[in-house]
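wait is this the right file?? whatever heres the structure
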């Protein structure tokens, strides 16, 4: 059995893919960290963000071990830098 999730991309992830979101299919019982693994496999330049990226599912921060459900909206949140006011 498989699930489909929508992945919203920001910052370095959006720069790598050149799109604001992806629709990905994974086996049932897949953790949210598998999305990061998938992205890094496709775009190895994202490896430097592996330990700094946080995860959100359906507008809530979650741990990397959180399991995905069909239809989830996932956000990969790399660190962002701000400018001056």
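ok assuming it is, sequence goes like this
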């Amino acid at each position: 059995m498989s699930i489909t999730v929508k992945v919203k991309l920001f910052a370095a992830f959006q720069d790598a893919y050149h799109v604001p979101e992806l629709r990905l299919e994974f086996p049932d019982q897949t953790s949210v960290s598998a999305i990061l693994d998938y992205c890094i496999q496709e775009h190895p330049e994202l490896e430097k963000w592996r330990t700094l990226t946080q995860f959100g599912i359906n507008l809530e921060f979650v741990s990397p071990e959180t399991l995905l459900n069909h239809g989830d909206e996932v956000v990969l949140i790399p660190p962002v830098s701000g400018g001056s006011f």
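The CA atoms of residues 17 and 43 lie 8 Å apart. so i think its the right one actually
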